[in-house]
């Protein structure tokens, strides 16, 4: 099985958070993505990812650590500040910005992903980071969207 691919049939998959009943749903067809070289300096230090539509508007970036194969989604809209949805890479965007590595998962991989996301934030100073369990995520998103409304 390729690195980063979750095998829900392995022993103890459920206690590790891989719930087959949440993945294998009737009528749902999954398409496995493959990370490719991005060739886009704007996304450094990320050199690989997956451009969902081929137009750089939605790009999956590898941020493993919490779970194997975890990715973050870079959202770029013309004339608007970018958003980065980091899922479970952190539970608090401020802690991520401070370089804090959360407790669950591969510390080395999470540390590398945190460093890469923070480097991306240096490249994109107006980047809004949205974490899945961050209670401030809705306020951060609202602020980013309100700023979009003010921009010409």
What keywords describe this structure?
globular; 4 helices; alpha+beta; six-stranded mixed beta sheet; 6 strands; 152 residues
Task: Describe the protein's architecture and organization.
The chain has 152 residues and is α+β, with helices and mostly antiparallel strands. The chain has a single domain (34-150), classed as Ribonuclease Z/Hydroxyacylglutathione hydrolase-like (Metallo-beta-lactamase, Chain A). It is 26% helix and 16% strand. The protein contains four helices and six strands, in the order H-E-E-E-E-E-H-H-E-H. Strands 1-2-3-4-5-6 form a six-stranded mixed sheet. A hairpin with an 8-residue loop joins strand 3 (58-62) and strand 4 (71-75). 20% of the residues are buried. The model has no long low-confidence stretch (mean pLDDT 86).
Please tell me the CATH architecture by its name.
4-Layer Sandwich
The main sheet comes to: 6 strands, mixed
Helix-strand makeup class? alpha+beta
The CATH superfamily is identified as Ribonuclease Z/Hydroxyacylglutathione hydrolase-like
- Give the count of structural domains: 1
- Put simply, the count of helices is 4
Could you tell me the strand content as a percent range?
Answer: 15-25%
Contiguous low-pLDDT stretches (5 residues minimum) are: none
**Mean pLDDT across residues:** 86
Q: Bin the helical content.
A: 25-40%
How are the strands ordered across the major sheet? 1-2-3-4-5-6
Rg over CA atoms = 16 Å
Large-scale geometry: globular
User: Which fold name fills CATH's third level, the topology?
Assistant: Metallo-beta-lactamase, Chain A
* CATH class group: Alpha Beta
N-to-C terminal Cα separation, in Å? 49 Å
């Amino acid at each position: 099985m390729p690195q980063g691919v979750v095998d829900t049939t392995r022993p103890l998959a459920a206690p590790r958070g891989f719930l087959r009943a949440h993945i294998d749903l009737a009528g749902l067809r999954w398409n496995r993505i493959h990370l490719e070289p991005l060739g886009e300096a704007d996304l450094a230090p990320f050199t690989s990812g997956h451009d969902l539509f081929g137009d750089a508007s939605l790009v999956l970036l590898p941020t493993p650590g919490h779970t194997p194969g975890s990715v973050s989604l870079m959202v770029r809209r013309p004339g608007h500040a970018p958003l980065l949805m980091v899922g479970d890479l952190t539970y608090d965007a401020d802690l991520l910005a401070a370089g804090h590595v959360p407790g669950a998962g591969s510390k080395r991989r999470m540390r590398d992903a945190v460093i890469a996301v923070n480097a991306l934030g240096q490249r994109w100073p107006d980047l809004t980071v949205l974490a899945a369990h961050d209670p401030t995520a809705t306020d951060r998103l609202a602020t980013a969207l309100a700023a979009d409304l003010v921009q010409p």
